[in-house]
Amino acid sequence: MGQKRHRTYCPPTYKRQKVARITNNGYLNFMTEYKKRFYGLSPQDMVHYAAKQWTQLSSAEKEAFKSKKPPTVVFKGPAQKVACDLKSDAAGGQQRSCQRQSPYARSRESERRLSRSKTSCKSAKNQQRGKPRPQQNMRSLNHMGSAVAYIHFLRKFQRKHTEMATTDLLKTATRLWCRLPESHRHAFERPLWVVTIGKS
């Protein structure tokens, strides 16, 4: 009897590539570009920071996303947004400190700072005691789905409700996404469209 030949496993070669479809909705095109640059954010963080930057864009920049032109906007991630907010708060506090204060007001201010430092130390200790485990955070993040799945859901919802305004569309879609079961959210992980890029 001859020896059996063992077949070596060869990984399949995929000839399809996911491509994001460009729509006439400027906000959806903006969110697609935002997702490409900050891949890995949860759907909640992505919607929060993307919507915040979208409201700060000029009319010409919004029109560029609607007319399918190459984006020239500098996208700001969560760390950059927090840094800008801290700079603005520091500038406002410096202006307030430049104003003249009476001796009584200065003493009251020092008492407030002392009380704030005590309360902040107590709150920090309480937060360390009641800090959730990393596994719990990962479970809640996986339960809400990924940003890619949310983008697929948002595009499908926009095609069914083309008459809705961008703000109403975003609010309604986010509310429905949070109510979806985990199995339905997982179904949107698969791409809604693929493009053939070649044949062997």
UniProtKB/TrEMBL annotation:
Biased composition regions of type Polar residues, renumbered to the chain: 94-104, 118-139
Residue runs in coiled coils: none
Top-level taxon of the source organism: Eukaryota
Chain intervals for the UniProt region annotation (Disordered): 88-139
Gene Ontology annotations of biological process type: sperm DNA condensation
SUPFAM superfamilies: HMG-box (SSF47095)
GO cellular component annotations of the record: nucleus
InterPro entries registered for this protein in UniProt: HMG_box_dom_sf, Protamine-like
Protein's name according to its UniProt entry: GD21472
